[in-house]
Design a protein that fits this description.
about 40% strand; 3-stranded antiparallel β-sheet; mainly beta; binds zinc ion; 5-stranded antiparallel β-sheet
């Protein structure tokens, strides 16, 4: 499994949110740490993509895409996401 940084999520976040959120500040629901999504630890596999907190390793966000074209985006570990115009 390859360990990447959150910059690899730029395209997927833009698809879901409508803007490049890699520079947006997010707060980890587990440890309270915050920082840009770009510094999250990202693992990409054939089953999906998981972004983890670089401080406590909790799951911040998940992306799952089926072979039928359906997609799911979850933010189980993000308690706040900075939204900028
Ligand atoms: Zn954390």
């Amino acid at each position: 499994m390859t360990k990447l940084d959150g910059n690899v999520l730029a395209g997927r976040l833009a698809d879901v949110l409508g803007w490049d959120a890699t520079a947006a500040d997010v707060r980890c629901a587990a440890c309270g740490a915050h920082g840009a999504i770009a510094v999250a630890v990202v693992y990409m596999t054939a089953m999906g993509t998981v972004a983890r907190c670089p401080h406590c390793d909790s799951v911040l966000a998940t992306f799952v895409e089926s072979d039928t074209g359906r997609s799911w985006f979850g933010m189980p570990g993000i308690s706040a996401l900075e939204v900028t115009p």
